[in-house]
Amino acid sequence: MIDNTKCECGHQNHEGTVLCESCGKPLHEDEDETKPLEMRYDGVARLSQRKNPSLLNRVWNFFSSVKVAIYLILITLVGAALGTVYPQENMFINIDPSVYYKETYGTLGHIYYLLGLSDTYGSWWFKALLVMIGASLVICSLDRVLPLYRALSKQQIRKHLSFILRQKVAYKGDLAQASASRGSSVDAGQWVEDAAKTLRKKGYRVHTDGTALLAEKNRFSRWGPYINHIGLIIFLLAVLMRGLPGWHMDKYMGFLEGETVKIPDTPYYLKNEQFNVTFYEEDEMTDRFRERGQTVPKRFETKAVLYVCEENCDNPAKEPVLKEVARHNILVNDPLEYKGLLAYQFDFALTPRLVSVSPMLRNKQSGQSYGPFTIKMKNPGVEYEAGPYKLVLKEYFPDFSLDEKGMPITVTNEPNAPAFVFSITGPGLPAEGVPYLYFPREADKAQFRQDEINGAVSQVWDISVNSMEDVEIANYTSYLNIRKDIALPYIWAGAAIFMLGVIIGTYWQHRRIWLRIDNGSELALGAHTNKNWYAMRKDVAWMLSQMGISVDPKQLSDEVKKA
Amino acid sequence: MNLESVSSTALLIAFILYAVSFFLFVIAVTGKKWSSRDPEQHTRKWATLGLFAAIAGLAAQLVFFFTRWYVAGHIPTSNMFEFMTFLAMMIMAAFVVIYLIYRSAVIGMFALPVGVVILAYALVFPPDIQPLIPALQSYWLYIHVTTAALGEAFFAVGFAAGLMYLIRVTDFRNSKRERRSLEFVIYVVLVILAFVIAVYTFKGMNYSASFEQETTRIDQNGQEVTEVGVVDYVLPPLVKPYNSVTVEMKPFLGMTEPLFEAPSWMNGVNAGRKLNTFIWSVIFGAVLYALIRLVLRKPISEAIQPALSGMDAEDLDEISYRAIAIGFPIFSLGALIFAMIWAHEAWGRFWGWDPKEVWALITWLFYAAYLHLRLSRSWHGVRSSWLSVIGFIVVMFTLIGVNLIIAGLHSYAGV
Amino acid sequence: MRRNRKWVQIAILIAILLIGGYTIGSSLFAEESIPREGSEPPAFSLLGLDGKTYSLQDYKGRPVIVNFWGTWCDPCKREMPAIQNQYEKWKDRGLEVLALNLDESRVTVQSFVQQNKLTFPILFDKDLLMRDRYAVRSYPTTFFIDSSGKIAKIAQGEMTESFIEQTVRTILKE
After folding, report:
1. Tens-of-pLDDT digits for all 415 residues of chain B?
2. Which of A429, A470, B378, C45 could pair with A358 as two cysteines, CB 3.0-4.6 Å apart?
3. Contact C79, C159 (CB under 8 A)
4. Which of A 140-169 lie inside 8 A of B, CB atoms?
């Protein structure tokens, strides 16, 4: 392999090296000699700089390019912005997107849907962008961090003159003049030692070899960008893992007080034992709210119990056997937590509903009462016993009404006006049973004229509750957000590592100063930092002034010299 | 005198002090030509006075902040009014920090108006102290909002320095595109100022109009719910809400009926009013711009340029970059990470692609691109300054535009 | 060292390809959240009124009508006689009808079925899980599934007998 990368100092460099790894001399003489040196990555060869790239290298080079990365960032930016024009599909609980956007926003909306923008963040192209950014993060970093580490860990103290003087901050001067005016001679070695002492006071780590010096500060901040990229990679990977089955769940479910509801796709059941809400008092609110007559909830909680199904879980024919595993008062920012499953309080609604009644069967003539027996409003049982009497439920109308033909029907499946048709058998009653229509609610009983319908039977028999104590009512439906997120700790870890990287990369800067004294008194000084040249110039000017050379920081900057 | 009135008085004092500080810095920079004293001394004296005024204003605003906190029982960063005042305070603080590092009076001339305009904008919104809804009762609220505002404050200073750089280096004679773009940026700033002036003017004239609007929305059960609401206008209605009936409208300049109706696809009950406010701001801004331009008789940025001639362009570029570099980690932490933590606690999901969250991400991506372009692709000077200007416009859109234009979980009160 | 580097590069690119492919693929080929005509109907296994358990996959290879109904839904009730007729007409040709009741109480459903003399299987859609899975928004909704196991037609609203006949003929054709 013939390459012209052997430096005049004798060191053999890799192909693609810009500045000699040993002495820093620029390896390519064909460029403008007055331009400051390209100091990126200390001029070390990077993987992606090789000539004649193979296909593998071409793909690698593509992803390791910062220009490509910036394009990816900008395209993602624009894509994300487009996703905010119209509400996304996941904002709604139950719509048909192929129809909704057309109906609500017209043709523009329909185009939006057709382009896939109605689900921008779940679309394949958006995910592809994130994958490419991930790839870019990995490859960009690997491509640079290894050579940079190599370059920074073995640095030469005495650099080539052209390396030093072509730095962005440079100074050239003759010490003999200054000391002649003082009437003394220059001691190069001593001068370097003194300079080293002043720099050490500023926190630099200084190495000298007689008449040359290398001062370095805050090297660790160079790793900042790579650390923050690692953080981002972990973050993205964790986000990806969430897509794996079982890693993530996000559902909103309503729980009526007293109800036990199965959480879909899990073996868990959650029961809302009780729901409590308190509102802000009149005097706790501002005038504006009072005027509007709005009530603002102050605190609401759900006393929740979590069960796990142990048997008959998938058997539709049998009731599942449940075991209690957790219990918690769920408040707005205080969820129930069990093995990664979280139930958050999201919202609530006032939905008073009859749950069950426990009436007595009364013989009006004898005055005897039998029972009580409990009738559930949801899926009531078929057989009941009240003393020696048996009641068989023949028909049930949760929301009783009469149709045009006067036939009983139910209007909804909610127990808003429940009606039960029993067939009562027992002592003193015919064997085929006596029919009895029972309305638990007094209003319904009056409206539908229960006694009239029951005719002669209602002269003797009566089914009714003794008091409100025998009526079970659920007042509220609590809306909970059921979530699961196994990837979460990794997401936080990625974010924390990102912050660490970005902080050490931004708030500290890597600074280096090289100087050498040739021919006894010719001073050449060069300095480099990865950011904040203002402070670099100040440091160099300060050091020089400590050594008796006063110079304006601005003069040190090569660019200003040219101007 | 109760604490609540102390609080609002303190804010007013702060506002006046900031405005005074701004004028002091203007005198420091422009007055040195006609001062009989040595210009350096002149600048330094007036700039120091300006600094003291700004710090005094900051102190007054801190009084406002803490007294309001005490009265309300929660940190005052929970609605548009409170957040904007806090942001203005952060910008003032960031400015003081940058000034103490670089000691440049011209920065005061630019950074202060940004803070003042934002504070004026904040004052437009209802200042009532409201009880917190349960979703906001978490100390992560404090941490997220304050950190994000601090990060954005540094971006604001970066914007001011970037704008100054552009005005400083643009060759107004020879580059039409640069001149036009700069004038447009100044126009946008004037639109915000015009919005504030318009609202105060019409409120002062006791103007009012209201409309009754019927809206249908889908509630969480997927049912359609029809509501009739009353929409109150502060500015004369050029645009009335979609599908509404005029309840009451004071005539304005002979106009007794709104000129046209908001389109149906505009989201939310207040869409018509917001569109109307936007149109008024744009018109007023144009009028304001035209007036100033008439007085100056040249492009506004060109008129400002001489004031900046003493300032080193490279320093401005450096200040702009440094402010953004300081702000970026703070912004990442506050607007993204703390926001994710709070969202996870309050809503159970750390990220939901809510428009406000998306725009915070967009802002973050933009400044990440800025840093990469500057550090790896050597985008310095003009290109970097334009990016810092555009970046701040993105920040403003995230704060103002998303709330007003796009609906979502994050929306708060509007005008 | 150089050869090692090349393998590392290849390994990383392959990892990216796999992870990326999975991510993008799972988006592209995401299970249709809403069953449409031409897609596969979600599977179910529900308890019937007669106490037996019925699973959709038991009927693979046979045309099936899946009807979502409730006794409080007038159009559902009105179309039941038509469905019953068609069932009797075609059941010997292999047609099956599974009527999923929208989680009403057993008593209510029993009484309705007896009164209307329905002979096809009546299933209980407990907790309305299948209604959600099938994205049913209005009632009645009927899914006609052909013998290849795909949804041939989705009918929303009350069906006339001639409509049912026509559609049954098409799914019976295979």
Report:
1. 677 788 888 888 999 999 899 888 888 877 666 666 677 777 788 889 999 999 999 999 999 999 998 888 788 887 878 888 999 999 999 889 888 887 877 788 788 888 888 888 888 777 777 776 665 667 787 788 889 989 999 999 999 899 989 988 888 888 888 888 888 888 888 888 887 777 777 777 777 777 777 766 655 455 677 777 777 777 777 777 777 777 777 777 767 777 777 766 555 556 677 777 778 888 888 988 888 888 888 888 888 888 777 777 888 898 899 999 999 999 999 999 999 998 887 776 788 888 889 999 999 999 999 999 998 888 988 999 999 999 999 998 888 777 766 653 344 444 4
2. A470
3. yes
4. none
Of the partner residues B131, B365, B373, the one whose CB lies closest to the CB of residue A77:
B365
Inter-CA distances, C111 with A411, B221, C129, Å = 16, 30, 23
User: Nearest-CA distance from A54 to chain C in Å?
Assistant: 11
Task: Please check whether residues B115 and B232 belong to one and the same domain.
Answer: no
Nearest to B369 among A73, A81, A492 (CB): A73
Number of folded domains in chain C? 2
Chain A: residue whose CA lies nearest to B137: A333
Same domain, B236 and B279: yes
Whether the predicted model's global pTM rises above the 0.80 cut: no
Map A352-391 to HEC letters.
EEEEEECCEEEECCCCCEECCCCEECCCCCCEEEECCEEE
C59 lies in which domain range?
45-172
Q: What is the CATH number of the domain that holds A173?
A: 3.30.310.50
Q: Are residues B74 and B88 in the same domain?
A: yes
Q: Under an 8 A CB cutoff, do A286 and B325 touch? A: no
Domain membership flag for residue A143: yes
Is there a single domain that holds both residue B104 and residue B220?
Answer: no
Contact A213, A540 (CB under 8 A): no
Total number of domains constituting chain B? 2
Residue A41 lies in a domain: no
Residues 114-133 in C contacting A (C-alpha not used; CB under 8 Å) = 124, 126-127, 129
Q: State the DSSP H helix or E strand holding residue B216, giving kind and residue range, or none if neither.
A: strand B209-218
Among B265, B328, B364, which would you mutate to test the A interface (most chain A Cβ atoms within 10 Å of its Cβ)? B265
* A179, A188, A553, C80 from A193: Cα distances, Å: 16, 9, 23, 103
Is residue A181 located within the same domain as residue A208? yes
Give the end of a domain, one of B237, B268, B298.
Answer: B298
A350 and A373 inside one domain: no
Same domain, C131 and C59: yes
Which residues from B are below 8 Å from A481, CB to CB? 347-349
Is C39 among the domain residues?
Answer: no
Strand partners, A462: A362
- C20 & C49 share domain: no
> Quick one: A296 and A386 in the same domain?
no
Segments forming the whole domain that contains residue A120: 46-153
Per-residue pLDDT of A232-279, as tens digits, reads: 999 999 988 887 777 888 888 999 998 899 888 888 999 999 999 988
Is B375 part of a structural domain of the chain? yes
Kind plus residue range of the DSSP H or E element containing A559: helix A558-562
Domain identity same for B93 and B218: no
Which of B47-76 are b and which e, b meaning 16 or more Cβ less than 10 Å from the residue's Cβ? bebbbebbebbbebbebbbebbbeebebbb
A219 inside 8 A of chain C by CB? no
Compute how many other C-beta atoms are within 10 angstroms of the C-beta atom of residue B339: 24
Q: What is the pLDDT of residues A84-141, one digit of tens each?
A: 888 888 777 667 777 788 877 778 888 888 888 888 888 888 988 999 999 999 999 9
Which conformational region is residue A328 in: left (phi greater than 0), alpha (psi within -120 to 50 degrees), or beta? beta
